Amino acid sequence: MERATLREAANGKIFSTANLIFGIGQISKMTGVSTRQLRYWESKGYIEPKKRADEQAQRVYGYDTFLRVSGIKSMQDEGYTLAAAVERTAALMAEADGIRNFLLDAYHGIAEVDNQDMLDLGFLDAEHTQRLYARSKDHHVEYLVRPAGEEATGK
């Protein structure tokens, strides 16, 4: 049985955040932002409730909105104005999304190289003659380049 790639798992049901839905009261409790403030942010277009098929009146928000509210609140606590906090949070979320997509593209599994578990980051060159591996040790990333034909044990 072939193993699903991390991207397939992330976009599928295994790591999906699509079903993480929070009421306005829950978002308020989790972030420390009042429901009144959340409604104000919503009126300004800074956050948006999820569309509901059942057309219930209660506002619900997704995980991405939870992250956005948390970021805005954190920035405000650091002294940012609301507008600047919204802008900075949007920039950080876009950067995180870019990093996530890059890592999903680069990651080719875990391989055992020289008796060490390392991330297989795929081919280093267009000719597919070298493969790049990496691991984190003591908060420092170490890289290893090996000829493509050299054996590495996949996990």
UniProtKB/TrEMBL annotation:
The keyword Repressor applies. PROSITE patterns: HTH_MERR_2. The keyword DNA-binding applies. Keywords: DNA-binding, Repressor, Transcription, Transcription regulation. Gene3D superfamilies: 1.10.1660.10. CDD domains: HTH_GlnR-like (cd01105). SMART domains: HTH_MERR (SM00422). Residues 24-91 form the HTH merR-type domain. GO terms for molecular function: DNA binding; DNA-binding transcription factor activity. PANTHER family: MERR-FAMILY TRANSCRIPTIONAL REGULATOR, REDOX-CYCLING DRUG-SENSING TRANSCRIPTIONAL ACTIVATOR SOXR. This is MerR family transcriptional regulator.
